[in-house]
Amino acid sequence: MGLKNSLQRVYICSAAYDDRLDEVVEKILEVFPRERKDRLILVKPNILGPHAPEKAVTTHPMLVKSVVRVLEKKGARVIVGDNPGMGGYGKALHSARKCGVLECAGQCFVNLGHNPVRKDIHSKYFSQATISREVLEADEVINLPKLKTHSLTVLTGAVKNTFGYVVGADKMYLHASCPSAADFARGLLDIYQVRPPELNIMDAVLAMQGNGPSNGTPVYLNRILASDNAVSLDAAATHMLGIRPSQVPHLDFAGKMGLGETDPEKMNIKGSLEKIPGFKFPGTFIPGITGLVLNRYLSRWANCLPEVVSSRCISCGICAGHCPVGAMSMSSSGPVLDRDKCINCYCCQEMCPEDAIRLSGRFLRLLGRGSRRE
After folding, report:
1. Measured between alpha carbons, how far is 12 from 233 in angstroms, rounded to an integer?
2. What are the residue ranges spanned by the domains of the chain?
3. Quick one: fold of 288-367?
4. Sorted alphabetically, which PROSITE patterns does this protein's record hold (predicted)?
């Protein structure tokens, strides 16, 4: 498909983590040109937590390195950073070091948690959020999402990666303020609209399937996707993975709000949008009309619940510490879930470093749908 002159374009190419990655980034910057000399550019990878690159949890450091290198050649002033999912300002440096981004970013790395700003947000769920100053003041934000599944949002992509604008414990507050999947989808879009990235380059070379965003299974797709519209980029990715954007709540709402085109027939796409067979989605995802009804209207009763796998649990307390509503607490025998308090945000499963939280299905098991745990 040819790339026409349009604001909502998607570029897709084959790629690998090798010496030719710089050429891929150069081409993307040609396709989406902007004045970058002497401009302050925030490169925002996904640094969810301290995970090695081969786990496919975080944006691969090779892509970060190529983007920084190419931008510096163009005379840009580059900074690199993210607010990890794990709480505490010191976690940003630890997470960046473990996932390899710190080394590849070099002197460009900044701790986005050091300069928080309280920002008024137009939202029905919250009136303010704590946002990194660098996000607000950069001349350009280049978003480097990882293509992953997500037990709450179905997909972690370009739009979801902007949740990393939010500093520290405010993420927990926002989760608590948006107690259903549909609520969180709308709240996520409220954060996204604080500063839609000017360019999005998605790392889909090594993606994650299954029960993401941290405990799924790595899978090589060998692709890089890019767009100047995060919604359109994510929508193209969902088509590539074999589902419709309407099955991803925040993309469904974003399309209806006019935040981006979600129909690939109405996008200007260069490259192959060939569907990837057999890609596995989270156990929380139910396809079709049944899933639409359950996820939208009956999620409080139908959704999976976190369940501690005692043989894996080391009683570190991270799950309890990251529960936004206090549904998970620690006892002498390990974590305990208060099912009445649980809002099915799956932060406990997302942050568990031992993969000791599985999602148990209530009557979803009877439907026999969704991916099996990897």
Report:
1. 10
2. 9-270, 288-367
3. Alpha-Beta Plaits (3.30.70)
4. 4FE4S_FER_1, 4FE4S_FER_2
Backbone dihedral angles phi then psi of residue 18, each to the nearest 5 degrees: -145, -170
CA angle 109, 60, 195 (to 5 degrees): 60
Closest residue by Cα to residue 159 from 260, 244, 36? 260
Residue ranges of alpha helices (H) inside the chain are 21-31, 61-73, 90-99, 101-105, 133-137, 158-161, 170-177, 181-192, 230-241, 249-256, 288-297, 299-302, 318-321, 347-351, 364-367
* Burial class of residue 319 (count of CB atoms within 10 Å of its CB; 0-12, 13-18, 19+): buried
Task: Show the CA angle centred on residue 324, arms to residues 319 and 326, nearest 5°.
Answer: 70
Which CATH class, in words, describes the domain spanning 9-270? alpha beta
Per-position pLDDT tens, the chain of length 374:
444 445 589 999 999 999 999 999 999 999 999 999 999 999 999 999 999 999 999 999 999 999 999 999 999 999 999 999 866 556 889 999 999 999 999 999 999 999 999 999 999 999 999 999 999 999 999 999 999 999 999 999 999 999 999 998 899 999 999 999 999 999 999 999 999 999 999 999 999 999 999 999 999 999 999 999 999 999 999 999 999 999 999 999 999 999 999 999 999 999 999 999 999 999 888 766 555 555 555 455 456 789 999 999 999 999 999 999 999 999 999 999 999 999 989 999 999 989 999 887 544 444 444 333 33
What's the rounded Cα separation, in Å, for the pair 259 and 288?
24
Q: What gap in Å lies between CA 305 and CA 299, rounded to an integer?
A: 11
**Alpha-carbon span 263 to 99, nearest angstrom:** 34
Single pTM value for the model: 0.92
Q: 3-state class of 276 per DSSP?
A: coil
CB 10 within 8 Å of CB 261: no
Measured CA to CA, the distance from residue 114 to residue 131 in angstroms comes to 11
